[in-house]
């Protein structure tokens, strides 16, 4: 037993107290000699320790936990390769604006620059992909610096922080009265900004006057928990809404203001376009897909994002929920002057929506074998309930799903985000099911994506975290294969992108889960239901047509 008197406290226990003060309930980790005192502290503080098989999984799970809960996630990894293995997960959280803390080990101070085990310049490596990266210099500062890192996670748009803690700093004990232990709720301010009041009033005026407005609700709508404010605005002002990223599910399917497939048409014909919480990045054609004649307004947590890559007519920096609520309030009393005249515009968009649905309807209902990916994702969409969190992890197959799968509740869609990282699926499942055990988790993997982090399926079995998993298996990295075929011809289309015919259903059963193979589209629905009823982590291996490509894949500019 450690000698923890009431008068002294170790660095690891200080870290655990700071995590507890932030509301962290679980750490994701892969063990190493540099970091085990944090485990000891977590046991005392009642923080769960989930040990995984690869540090990338730990970092992705911390990212996923933050997205689901709104609280920061935390991953703890050892020095050297433990930290470098986690880099991809941190980078993904950085691009996705997800608040998480990665804690990495480091050699002892008295071995600095001597070539100690796993010694690397972690802070220098992490600085470009975090909002804050530092070394804890002294045991008494351990809790203080954890709280500092969390404070930086929530400055502006959220993001990850990194701390390295040398082994002697972590293991040493200091008098309790010499250590700063920040108290919960007392070490960082609210970051919720309501935006510039004059700009809010101007946006209200623009919305009332617009004849053909459209709004895009991006990930920050979920990040700021602005669902109710967004719904109130679009319904009160009669504005058609499109959703992307974590903003999907803000409006339920079937809502008269919920649009999905007519976005390009809307953005080409609208007279006012409001972009909420999503950057003008590659997903938005860097802003070039918006009508040059439209008035463009951008609302974002980060001033650096507003007006980046294209000019705008109005920019508002602030919390999406507070800004949208203020805009709705500012427009009150003038609603009839704007909302009533938009019926024709909504009807026009609904017709464009229906046309797009009918165009793909034959594939959505196709009985072909190998199975058309549209049929697979259509079956998954029909399978989802209001309590199903949907996770997409893959390239071409998930691109198909983005056009068809509609989460039925806010916060029930998870994808990598703009870094496009394959391998997030299993760790996101891990985080989502642990954070929300009352929810069903449904994950669609490409076979290439699953293979990157799939061994942690065993972690899901070990911690009894059941989910319904589907592998859209075409034995190819098909999104890349399409590009190679388009650029270099059929004779070179399969260089470096073709995989073996892996029976992932057998893999699941080998690790203690539920597994099934599907070749007939009529068997998809029954297999999904059996996976749900199994109460186990599951994989349904669905053989899909390798020669079917998603429109989003074929339209990517990098292949042209």
Jot down its keywords:
Rossmann fold; globular; 3 domains; alpha/beta; six-stranded parallel beta sheet; 16% strand; single chain; 560 residues
Describe it.
- This protein is α/β, with parallel strands linked by helices.
- The chain has three domains: 8-178, Thiamin diphosphate (ThDP)-binding fold, Pyr/PP domains (Rossmann fold); 197-352, 3-Layer(aba) Sandwich (Rossmann fold); 366-559, Thiamin diphosphate (ThDP)-binding fold, Pyr/PP domains (Rossmann fold, 3-Layer(aba) Sandwich).
- It contains 24 helices and 19 strands.
- Helix 7 links the parallel strand 6 (132-135) and strand 7.
- It is globular.
- The protein starts with 7 loop residues before the first strand and ends in a 6-residue tail after the last helix.
- The relative contact order is 0.10.
Calculate Rg over CA atoms: 25 Å
Give the % helix. 40-55%
Low-confidence region ranges:
none
Alpha carbon gap, first and last residue: 64 Å
- Could you say which overall geometry the principal axes of the C-alpha atoms support? globular
| Relative strand content | 15-25%
Topology:
Layout: E1 8-10, H1 11-22, E2 26-29, H2 36-45, E3 48-51, H3 55-69, E4 73-77, H4 81-85, H5 87-96, E5 100-106, H6 122-126, E6 132-135, H7 142-153, E7 161-166, H8 167-171, E8 173-175, H9 197-209, E9 213-217, H10 219-223, H11 227-237, E10 241-243, H12 263-269, E11 272-276, E12 295-300, E13 314-317, H13 320-331, H14 335-338, H15 343-364, H16 373-383, E14 388-393, H17 396-404, E15 413-414, H18 425-435, E16 440-446, H19 447-453, H20 457-462, E17 468-473, H21 478-488, H22 504-510, E18 514-518, H23 524-534, E19 538-543, H24 551-554
Parallel strand pairs: 2-3, 2-4, 4-5, 5-7, 6-7, 9-10, 9-11, 11-12, 12-13, 14-15, 14-16, 16-17, 17-19, 18-19
Antiparallel strand pairs: 1-8
């Amino acid at each position: 037993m450690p000698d923890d008197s009431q008068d002294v406290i170790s660095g690891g226990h200080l870290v655990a107290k700071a995590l507890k003060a932030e509301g962290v309930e679980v750490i994701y980790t892969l063990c190493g000699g540099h970091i085990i005192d944090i485990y000891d502290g977590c046991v005392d503080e009642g923080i769960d320790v989930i040990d995984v098989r690869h540090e990338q999984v730990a970092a992705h799970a911390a990212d996923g936990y933050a997205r689901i809960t709104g609280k920061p996630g935390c991953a703890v990894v050892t020095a050297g390769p433990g930290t470098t293995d986690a880099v991809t997960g941190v980078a993904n959280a950085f691009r996705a604006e997800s608040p998480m803390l990665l804690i990495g080990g480091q050699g002892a101070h008295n071995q600095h620059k001597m070539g100690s085990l796993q010694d690397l310049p972690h802070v220098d490596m992490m600085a470009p992909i975090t909002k804050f990266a530092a070394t804890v210099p002294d045991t008494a500062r351990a809790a203080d610096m954890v709280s500092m890192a969390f404070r930086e996670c929530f400055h502006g748009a959220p993001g990850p922080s990194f701390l390295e803690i040398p082994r002697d700093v972590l293991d040493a004990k200091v008098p309790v009265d010499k250590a700063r232990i920040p108290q919960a709720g007392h070490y960082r301010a609210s970051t919720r900004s309501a935006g510039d009041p004059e700009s809010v009033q101007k946006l209200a005026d623009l919305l009332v006057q617009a004849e053909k407005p459209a709004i895009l609700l991006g990930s920050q709508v979920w990040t700021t928990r602005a669902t109710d404010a967004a719904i109130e605005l679009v319904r009160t002002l009669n504005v058609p809404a499109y959703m992307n990223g974590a903003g999907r599910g803000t409006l339920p399917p079937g809502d008269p203001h919920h649009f999905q497939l007519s976005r390009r048409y809307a953005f080409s014909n609208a007279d006012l376009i409001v972009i909420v919480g999503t950057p003008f990045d590659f997903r938005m054609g860097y802003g070039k897909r918006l009508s040059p004649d439209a008035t463009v307004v951008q609302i974002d947590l980060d001033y650096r994002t507003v007006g980046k890559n294209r000019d705008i007519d109005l920019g508002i920096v602030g919390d999406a929920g507070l800004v949208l609520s203020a805009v709705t309030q500012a427009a009150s009393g003038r609603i009839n002057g704007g909302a009533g005249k938009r019926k024709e515009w909504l009807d026009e968009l609904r017709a464009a929506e229906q046309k797009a649905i009918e165009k793909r309807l034959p594939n959505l209902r196709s009985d072909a074998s190998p199975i058309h990916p549209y049929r697979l994702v259509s079956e998954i969409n029909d399978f989802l309930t209001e309590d199903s969190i949907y996770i997409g992890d893959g390239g071409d197959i998930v691109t198909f799903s983005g056009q068809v799968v509609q989460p039925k509740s806010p916060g029930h869609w998870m994808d990598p985000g703009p870094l496009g990282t394959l391998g997030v699926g299993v760790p996101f499942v891990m985080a989502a099911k642990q954070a929300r055990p009352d929810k069903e988790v449904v994950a669609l993997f490409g076979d290439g994506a699953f293979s990157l982090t799939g061994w942690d399926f065993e972690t899901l079995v070990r911690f009894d975290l059941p989910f319904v998993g589907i592998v859209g298996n075409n034995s190819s990295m098909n999104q890349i294969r399409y590009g190679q075929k388009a650029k270099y011809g059929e004779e070179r289309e399969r260089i470096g992108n073709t995989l073996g015919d892996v029976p992932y259903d057998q893999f699941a059963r080998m690790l203690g889960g539920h597994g099934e193979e599907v070749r007939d589209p009529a068997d998809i629905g029954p297999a999904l239901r059996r996976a749900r009823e199994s109460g186990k982590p599951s994989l349904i291996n669905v053989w899909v047509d390798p020669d079917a490509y998603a429109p989003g894949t074929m339209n990517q500019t990098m292949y042209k």
